[in-house]
């Protein structure tokens, strides 16, 4: 499960998704816009500490947070 998958699994209700974004933003000391970019646009944080924080918050392994689902086969 990726971070984006986790976010989508929260359902259509706004409060759990908003709470996740707010919690991660607060823990990482970044803006909510930055967290949305990490989730929705699959942008990986530059700071490795942010990745650790997100992993701990979501329970998703660090290596799975931004897995590339598309495999190019030759």
Summarize the structure.
The chain is mainly α and 74 residues long.
Question: Could you walk me through the main structural features you see in this protein, from its secondary elements to its overall organization?
Answer:
Helix 2 crosses helix 3. This protein has helices spanning 3-9, 14-28, 32-40, 48-58. Helix content is 57%, strand content 0%. It has one domain. The chain has 4 helices and no strands. It is mostly helical and 74 residues long. Mean pLDDT is 87; it is low at 69-74. The chain is globular, with a radius of gyration of 12 Å. The longest helix has 15 residues, at 14-28.
Counted by DSSP, the helix tally is 4
Note the beta-strand portion: under 5%
Distance, first to last CA:
25 Å
Number of domains: 1
What Rg do the Cα atoms give? 12 Å
- The average pLDDT is 87
Instruction: Report the sheet with the most strands, covering strand number, pairing sense and barrel closure.
Output: none
Keywords:
0% strand, 74 residues, disordered C terminus, mainly alpha
Secondary structure topology:
Blueprint: H1 3-9, H2 14-28, H3 32-40, H4 48-58
